[in-house]
Design goal:
- By secondary structure, the protein is an alpha+beta fold.
- The chain has one domain (15-80).
- It has helices at 15-21, 69-80, and strands at 29-34, 37-42, 51-52, 58-59.
- The mean pLDDT is 84.
Length: 81
């Protein structure tokens, strides 16, 4: 896939790649030069990947992690702020 650098030095990551890697606005990326290549990597490390149902609705697949009642309550409280 070929992309072009604009006059301001920006490169647009194609939508297909952004969707595949769940890269959204304000996602922080680390940029490194490796020989004559540029490498972009998510700063926060791997995040839960957004999946889609057959009809296109987004959801986060289960991770198998069990949350305590206290953790659930904290998440609810944070969401209501």
């Amino acid at each position: 896939m070929v992309v072009t650098i604009d006059r301001a030095g920006r490169v647009v990551i194609p939508k297909e790649i952004r969707d595949r890697l769940d890269l959204t606005a304000d996602t922080e990326l680390n940029i490194d030069v490796e020989g004559d290549s540029i490498r972009l990597e998510r700063v926060a490390g791997p995040q839960r990947r957004l999946a889609r149902t057959k009809d296109g609705r987004p959801y986060f697949p289960a991770t198998g992690q069990v949350l305590s009642d206290l953790e659930v309550q904290r998440l609810r409280d944070a969401d209501q702020r």
